[in-house]
Amino acid sequence: MTLHHAGRKTLNLGLQGGGAHGAFTWGVLDRLLEDGRLDFEGISGTSAGALNAVALADGLARDGTAGARARLRELWTRVSAAGRPGASARDLMEAWMGAWRMPAMQPFHMIEAMTNFASPYGFNPMNINPLKEIVTELVDFDRLRAAKTPKLFISATAVRTGKIKVFSGEGVTAEAIMASACLPYLFQTVIVDGEPYWDGGFMGNPALFPFFTETRATDILLVQINPIERNTVPTSTKEILERMSEITFNASLLREFRAIDFVNRMLDEGRLDPARYRRNRVHRIDAGKALEKFSASTKFDTSRAFFEELHEAGREAARDWLAAHFKDIGVRDTVDLRTQFQ
């Protein structure tokens, strides 16, 4: 079902995690909001994507489009400020931003040594997490939960079972966001309602399946900041670990692509009841070309200048996507799903 309101279109947003590269997603969202022709029924986010999701939703609830754009800018401004030399918990902030690469690739040798030979319970016994302070101060979770739209779906990984946990509705709290962004070699396990959680990227980056039953919109726009494909074969230890990380954090997404494609094909062939199943159209704004010039180390770069550069790159990518594919929303897929997993 495609929802139209006076020339506007409604879709669901999927926001990947990826450390500092989440500033690219900020730029994408900023341009989509500025365009003014889209409404978001559901937003699924993981880690940095979860941060963007709650900032966007809280801003919309507070002051509409202008509020959302302001909240997103404030989020990334605060993240950058927390990473400045001399700022509280600087090393942990920068380490989190870079930890979507494996710990062995951290350029801060002290952090590298700690993450290789000690757990966060040893080198961070006070459980300092600069992100929690930022999120708690920035987002009014009572207001967020009271708003009917957009519906939020925040992914975390259940430590005991290895299953995905999707926080939604009343479950969207500051603790849920911290769980979604809890890389276990940097931060102590986050406990929510007695259950331990780690970063959601292990099992859902982001989760798309909540859209199928919890929303009416049948178009999904994925903002992807972790590359699925690489044209070169990694040979160095750094490159190998880096590619392993990328594959790990994209695995669940590829499985969901396969499931969506399967249901769509069964519907097209008349083998599923359209009264029980629906076709979902998938679109994507891919950061691959915009980010390929940056080395992997930039995932921990918290400088304001770098965030602004990624923000502008995200805006340009969203502008190009709107020009090419706004007309396709509600009409057809703009991603060939089968090529993503075959």
Give a written overview of the molecule.
The chain has 342 residues and is an alpha/beta fold. The protein has one domain: Cytosolic phospholipase A2 catalytic domain (3-Layer(aba) Sandwich). The chain contains 13 helices and nine strands. It has helices at 22-35, 48-82, 90-98, 109-117, 120-123, 130-138, 141-146, 174-180, 210-214, 237-268, 288-291, 304-325, 337-341, and strands at 4-5, 8-15, 38-45, 151-158, 164-168, 190-192, 195-199, 219-224, 281-286. Strands 1, 2, 3, 4, 5, 6, 7, 8 and 9 form a nine-stranded mixed beta sheet that branches. The radius of gyration is 19 Å and the shape is globular.
CATH topology value:
Cytosolic phospholipase A2 catalytic domain
**Could you tell me the radius of gyration in angstroms?**
19 Å
Query: What's the CATH architecture name?
Result: 3-Layer(aba) Sandwich
State the shape. globular
pLDDT under 50 segments (min length 5)? 100-114
Number of strands: 9
Strand content: 5-15%
Helix content range of the residues, please?
40-55%
CATH class call: Alpha Beta
Average of per-residue pLDDT values:
87
Tell me about the biggest sheet?
9 strands, mixed
Question: What are the secondary-structure elements, in order, as H or E?
Answer: EEHEHHHHHHEEHEEHEHEHHH
Based on secondary structure, the structural category is alpha/beta
